[in-house]
Amino acid sequence: MLTGKKILLGVSGGIAAFKAASLCSKLVQSGAEVRVIMTESATRFITELTLQALSKGPVYTDTFDEKNPAVIAHIDLADWADLVLVAPATANIIAKMATGLADDMLSTTLLATQAPIMLAPAMNVHMYQHPAVIRNLAELAARGVMMAEPGEGLLACGYVGKGRMEEPESLVRIVQAYFERQERVNAKPLKGRSVVVTAGSTVERIDPVRYITNDSSGKMGFAIAHAARELGAEVHLVIGSTQASPPVGIPFTKVESAQDMYNALLAHWDEADIVVKAAAVADYRPKEQLNRKIKKSGEEMSLELVKTVDILESLGKRKTSQFLIGFAAETHDLEKYAMDKLTRKNCDLLIANDVTAEGAGFGTDTNVISIFDSQGLVEALPLMSKEACARRIMELAGERLTGDLSL
Ligand code: CTP
């Protein structure tokens, strides 16, 4: 199932390094071509000879030990790999990757590679919960590094908790799932589909210098637009106020208020196959919009607000063949509010995130989302980059649209 796939296995120095032997063997048995890099510390737990015999190739430990004079080993391996899998990934190699340190063969190759990287962290539970490790993992996840999260159980140090490296069998399944996902992307399941995505926040003017808005950065909407294009769709963005830059090459309409956003969406409505409402729309706007700056007077002032158009709800009512995806940012009772919004706004999918969760919500590069349909929870995804969340959402939309649930 991994036939012809080139996997560069990085082994760093933790007790779980002994599992790398079984992992290497199982990857080879699945048809993968495996090359191995070990850190100096990893060689204290398991010998190079073991991994050499199992991978049927040389094992690299030293950046200066150039086995083939025709190439520079760390660049050659970095370019060769379809996937770099670091298992186990210790707190040390995770920290080096997060800061971009390159002081041995493995860290140097990790910096040189453009191949996707997957980590299988393994460490003591207290190390795994250390703020530095949490920050480093979040930084790597935001860069698109994939994580095979450690399991819970009895650790080698005697503690019971999270930190045990994912078992080799399930790591092989995770690697297979990754390559299957890549094949789906390459198959361009959204080819010929028109996708309209809203991103950022709306701005509701009070007077020429003041307005009501919110913290949405636009990153999630931009990631969705990028993912839709990668899957082959024709994409149009409707952008409110944002701090991030839109993906290069995707046409867009800039808007300010909820009403502007609604009008821009209607202009693309008839040809749209999928509409994604990732923008954070103001629920209320000032009743009056003044042409002149309001002057200060008195100790108190009140602003009369009226409801804005609920864009998603209105589109939900107009829906014919369009596939409608809504978002919900919640702080509590996630499922209850998500299902309520999905029904009320007649969405096909609703993406909910608990903005109080670590690494989720406005402004971050990562997100923790749960996807709902009319039947309830479809998938609850772990902490991952907004790009990875976006890919999964658009894949799912593609499956639902074509009715091909094998995708
Ligand atoms: N939305 C919209 N128009 C509005 C308000 C929200 O299209 N005037 C869309 C958002 O783009 C999002 C979804 O509705 O996709 C949910 O937004 P949210 O603000 O969470 O929902 P509300 O219905 O406003 O609910 P509440 O503020 O009470 O949580």
Task: Kindly describe this structure.
There is one protein chain. This protein has 407 residues and is of the alpha/beta class. The chain has two domains: 6-186, Flavin prenyltransferase-like (Rossmann fold), CATH 3.40.50.1950; 194-402, CoaB-like (Rossmann fold), CATH 3.40.50.10300. The protein is 35% helix and 24% strand. It is built from 14 helices and 22 strands. It has an eight-stranded mixed β-sheet with strand order 13-12-9-14-17-18-20-21, sandwiched between helices. A six-stranded parallel β-sheet has the order 3-2-1-4-5-6, with helices on both faces. A two-stranded antiparallel sheet has the order 7-8. α1 (19-29) runs parallel beside α3 (48-55), α1 crosses α9 (168-186) and α5 (91-99) crosses α8. The mean pLDDT is 94. The structure holds cytidine-5'-triphosphate. Cytidine-5'-triphosphate binds at residues 258, 277, 279, 281, 283, 308, 310-312, 326-329, 341.
